[in-house]
Amino acid sequence: MTKVAAAAPAEHPAVAETLAQAFQSDPALSWILADPHHRAKALRALFRVLVPADARCGVVLRAAGDEAAALWRAPGHAHGGTMEFLRTLFPILSAFGTALPRGLKVQASIAANRRRGHFWYLHYVGVRPTDQGKGHGGRIIRAQTAIADAQALPCWLETATHENVPLYERLGFFAVAEWDVKDGGPHFWGMTREPLRL
Question: What residue stretches are annotated with the N-acetyltransferase domain (predicted)?
Fold first, then answer.
């Protein structure tokens, strides 16, 4: 079984690459970044920014062989905060270019539908395409939901991938919201997970 642990800063580039590969065919990011070649470059740039940003306000988990990675934001940090926004603004503008308006629409819809209160936020989780279907995604999510259970805290995530909804349900999440991004954007499921009593 592949070991899951918090990623050290030196491991952040490998985590970014894993997530960029995992999200290449994501419905939301495919709508934002329609050109596959531009999408591949933009996702690498995006995750090179998001991985250290989420490490500062939560935890970055990686499988030892880089099969999977997850970015979790700690309770109270789901929105990232003003300083994090300013720190990441220019690199994200550069990565998205003319696709930025679509990216902002998606982000606004997510923020409007996100759970309120104190919770662990699964910002991103992904498995390299060559390693999907082998249990890596569930393993890396359970590593953090066990901590949330110990802290008696709920978890939250959004997904635009219908096929992932049953996976998250098997991990204790359940859908509490569904919405469409305006102007023909992707459909999302908002899913929550209540802490298990230990």
Answer: 59-194
* Among the listed residues 91, 99, 111, 110, the one whose alpha carbon sits nearest the alpha carbon of residue 46: 91
Phi, psi of 23 (to 5 degrees): -100, 10
What Å distances lie between residue 132 and 95, 124, 125, 164, CA to CA?
26, 15, 12, 12
CATH code of the domain containing 92? 3.40.630.30
Query: Dihedrals φ, ψ of 69, to 5°?
Result: -150, 155
- Which tokens in the block code for residue 6? 């918090």
Q: Which residue has the tokens 């989780």?
A: 125
pLDDT in tens, 90-122: 777 888 888 989 998 999 999 999 999 999 999
- CB-based contact 122:171 (threshold 8 Å): no
The backbone region for 83, taken as left when phi is positive above 0, alpha when psi lies in -120 to 50, beta otherwise, is alpha
Counting DSSP H helices and E strands in the chain, the numbers are 7, 7
Is 198 contained in some domain?
A: no
